[in-house]
Write a structure and sequence with these properties.
- With about 325 residues, this protein is an alpha+beta fold.
- Among the domains are: about 25-85; about 130-195 and about 235-330, Muramoyl-pentapeptide Carboxypeptidase, domain 2.
- It contains eleven helices and six strands.
- The chain has a four-stranded antiparallel sheet with strand order 3-4-6-5.
- The protein starts with about 25 loop residues before the first helix and ends with a helix.
């Protein structure tokens, strides 16, 4: 059989094999057109979605830029309203308003800000009382502040002989036990005294001094320096106790200042405040307390208050004047 080479041979016509044009109506062609149309629609939909997304993002970015400005304007308006309100409600007298206003405007601080800073300074005072439940223990009783006539007290036993206000008695027992654990034998020589008993002590001392040659006026004045006038004694409110040691008391007929030379006094100076007690009449505060130095006389003021008073270096009169009466006067205003 002869192989067809595509070349014309002898007596053979020229033969060329040609491809027929594709049939546009064939199933394959129709399917291809449909796929192309479908992809066109998909691309168009994707383009629309991307365009919408771009518009949304642009709107959000614009709103985020504008929001701080609106917030800032709102804050400024609120601050302005607050300042105006503060100026109206707490306006000083006409003769004082101009200097204060000028100072505040020059410093850039409003009246409300000054008040806030003052409050922060007061609240940051490490010595100010913070436990309202102990306010009762700061009662000041002295010659200028007699105890209320209707004062009532719930007593608790320290031992078989002596009593104090119930809460003070509980802490006194704990303090005596702690001292004993450290080898210190504290001994209470006096605690709660009724007003009647205080009167007996006061009168007896006057008689003894008069027997030594003093006039009654001299004896009364001297007695008042060492023994509280009835109705002005902390012993009568159950918050004071006289503390020494049994050994020291055995060799002394009276309470004297040389108790400060004992290990017991050193222990009390270091630990009494841990149990709510303070040395009531310090040596360097006699002109304020108007009572001679008594290293044996301890007063219950509350656990938190005792720590603060001890750290402040103030006597009770000074502490109450600064933090209790000052606060009451501030609230009254």
């Amino acid at each position: 059989m002869r192989e067809n080479t595509g070349r014309p041979g002898n007596g053979q016509s020229d033969y060329r094999q040609t491809e027929l044009p594709p049939n546009r109506h064939s199933p394959e062609a129709v399917a291809r057109r449909r796929r192309r149309q479908r992809w066109k629609r998909i691309r168009f939909v994707l383009f629309i979605l991307l365009l919408i997304l771009a518009i949304v993002l642009a709107v959000r970015c614009t709103s985020r830029i504008e929001e701080p400005e609106e917030s800032s304007l709102s804050s400024m308006e609120e601050s302005s309203e607050s300042s105006l309100s503060s100026g109206i409600t707490s306006r000083p007298a006409p003769d004082e308003s101009l200097p204060e206003s000028t100072e505040n405007e020059e410093s850039g601080v409003s009246g409300g800000d000054v008040s806030d800073e003052s409050s922060e300074e007061e609240s940051s005072d490490p010595y100010a009382p913070t436990d309202a439940s102990e306010d009762w223990a700061l009662m000041l009783v002295n010659a200028d502040n007699p105890m209320p006539e209707d004062y009532t007290i719930e007593l608790g036993n320290i031992n078989e002989r002596f009593r104090m206000e119930k809460r003070a008695a509980e802490q006194m027992i704990k303090m005596i036990e702690a001292a004993e654990a450290d080898g210190i034998g504290l001994y209470v020589t006096s605690a709660y005294r009724s007003v009647d008993y205080q009167q007996q002590l006061f009168d007896t001392n006057i008689q003894n001094l008069m027997a030594q040659g003093m006039t009654r006026e001299e004896a009364e004045a001297e007695t008042a320096r060492n023994i509280a006038v009835p109705g002005t004694s902390e012993h009568s409110i159950g918050l004071a106790a006289d503390i020494v040691t049994s050994d020291w008391f055995y060799y002394h007929t009276d309470l004297t200042e040389d108790f400060e030379d004992t290990a017991a006094f050193d222990w009390l100076s270091e630990h009494a405040q841990e149990y709510g007690f303070i040395l009531r009449y310090p040596k360097d505060k006699q002109d304020i307390s108007k009572i001679t130095y008594e290293p044996w006389h301890y007063r219950y003021v509350g656990l938190s208050n005792a720590e603060k008073i001890k750290a402040s270096g103030l006597c009770l009169e000074e502490y109450v004047e600064k933090y209790v009466k000052g606060e009451e006067e501030s609230l009254a205003e």
